[in-house]
Write a structure and sequence with these properties.
The complex is a heterodimer of chains A (108) and B (309). With 108 residues, chain A is mainly β. Chain A is built from 1 helix and 4 strands; from the N terminus they run βββαβ. Chain A has one helix at residues 91-95; strands spanning 47-51, 73-74, 77-78, 101-105. In chain A, β2 and β3 (77-78) form a beta hairpin. The longest helix of chain A is centred in the C-terminal third of the chain and has 5 residues, at 91-95. Chain A starts with 46 loop residues before the first strand and ends with a strand. Chain B has 12 helices and 10 strands. In chain B, α2 crosses α8 and α4 runs parallel beside α6. Chain B starts with a helix and ends with a helix. Classes of the chains: A mainly beta (108), B alpha/beta (309). At the A-B interface, α1 of A face α1, α2, β3 and α10 of B. The structure holds iron/sulfur cluster (2 copies). One iron/sulfur cluster binds at residues 49, 65-68, 70-71, 81, 86-92 of chain A.
Chain lengths: 108, 309
């Protein structure tokens, strides 16, 4: 097999367990940022935070506490969780003083 | 400009989800907080010593970092960051790089207090324009909670197990922040996750934008190694500062400044009793251990107050 692409044209999304080495980048390098966003870590959850927008005053206190960058903010508003990445640690639930987040067993 | 959490969280995220750190990991909170302090128009080169953060944030081909990232070995994150910064200075002088780059090294306590210490000390002494951030979770968590020189006395670690022979780790925690201050570098600070992150953010910003070598030590609790419920991290950090176990201070050009004085200094057991690694200290007959910790914390706190006068 011949290499058809330059290393910096190979995208993380094209590399998987069955990709031959010739089609991978050399030296474990990656030429894009933030490719872990492709990974679903939401399936790790045993507990899930639930957002109650009507109670949120957008104080943003929960946002910097999230280890999984799963509380998006847009135009001064705290948006609903990014459940593809949230691991359900519950930190946000404890930090929110406005009861805008509840915390439940997955599938309960 | 006055600190505004609202403005800060509006910035584009530089450490994205999908990394494989444990649920509730303090290291990830530290990284997000530091990277948020960068001006959005500035670029960064991140150097990462071996550790939890490294094995979890860069699994080929998935990187959680939006910025350039180098995995260095356990012992040389300081040297790697210094080398990249030196190369940048030359390229900049020759006009081959135009953008502004900042150089940030991250290491856990294993990679910083212990294994990477000589390389960190050297990089600081040579005066590179870098920031070294230690996410201090007080043991080798990645390999299974072995004690480090940052592990506090009496903590139950797998290489210092609490039992009938020893009461957990026999030695006190190394005071690395003071050691870094003794290097005479322009900025050294100690912080953790508190409230609206004002203290954290301002320190990260100063560390990044002060010219020359700077050091930031961040208490970054580990729910697995410290054995507490993942959701309780904010409470653990608050108790650490309110008991003076982890005081918030900074050293600017050799001048020590206390950034937070608890309204009421709480007894250390408030902090200890929340964590499984100290559980044996609450057994009957173990009262002396809590007294020892209290004595040690009081002595360190008094000494800090004196330095900050
Ligand atoms: S539960 Fe944890 S991971 Fe999920 S959004 Fe809240 S803080 Fe983030
Ligand atoms: S802490 Fe609560 S009220 Fe504040 S932004 Fe988060 S969800 Fe909304």
């Amino acid at each position: 097999m011949t290499m058809t692409k330059k290393a910096n044209e190979i995208k993380a999304s094209e590399i998987n367990e069955s990709t031959p080495w010739q089609e991978m980048t050399i030296g474990g390098e990656i030429y894009e940022g933030g490719t872990s966003a492709l990974v679903n870590t939401g399936e790790w959850r045993t507990m899930i935070p639930i957002f109650h927008e009507e109670k949120c005053n957008h104080c943003m206190l929960c946002v910097p506490f999230c280890p999984d960058s799963s509380i998006p903010v847009e135009n001064g508003k705290r948006k609903d969780f990014d459940l593809m990445h949230c691991k359900g640690c519950g930190i946000c639930f404890k930090v929110c003083a406005h009861k805008a987040i509840s915390y439940e067993k997955v599938g309960a | 400009m006055a600190y505004s959490l609202k403005q800060q969280v509006e910035k584009p995220e530089r450490f994205v989800g999908g990394h494989r750190l444990c649920a509730g990991c303090g290291a990830a909170i530290t990284v997000r907080g530091v990277m948020r302090a960068l001006k959005p128009e500035d670029k960064a080169v991140v150097v990462n010593a071996t550790g939890c953060l490294e094995v979890s944030s860069f699994l080929y081909p998935y990187t959680a970092w939006e910025d350039s990232y180098i995995h260095s070995a356990f012992e040389n994150a300081g040297a790697t960051a210094g080398g990249v910064e030196a190369a940048y200075r030359v390229l900049k002088k020759k006009g081959k790089v135009n953008e502004t780059f900042k150089f940030i090294a991250f290491g856990g306590d294993g990679g910083t207090y212990d294994i990477g210490f000589q390389s960190l000390s050297g990089a600081m002494e040579r005066g590179h324009d870098i920031v070294y951030v230690c996410y201090d979770n007080e043991a080798y968590m990645n390999t299974g909670v072995q004690r480090s020189s940052s592990t506090p006395r009496f903590a139950d670690a797998t290489t210092t197990p609490a039992g009938s022979i020893i009461p957990g780790k026999p030695q006190n925690k190394k005071d690395l922040t003071a050691i870094m201050a003794a290097h005479g570098i322009p900025y050294v600070a100690q912080t953790t996750f508190l409230g609206n992150f004002k203290d954290f953010h301002e320190k990260a910003e100063k560390a990044i934008y002060t010219e020359g070598p700077t050091f930031l030590n961040v208490m970054s609790p580990c729910p697995r190694g410290w054995r507490y419920e993942t959701e309780d991290i904010a409470e653990i950090c608050k108790l650490a500062v309110d008991t003076c176990v982890w005081p918030l201070f900074e050293v600017v050009d050799g001048v020590w400044k206390l950034n937070y004085e608890p309204r009421k200094k709480l007894p250390v057991e408030e902090y200890l009793k929340k964590q499984g690694r100290f559980r044996h200290m609450f057994n009957p007959g173990s009262e002396w251990m809590i007294e020892e910790v209290q004595k040690h914390v009081d002595k360190k706190w008094e000494a800090l107050l004196n330095k900050c006068k």
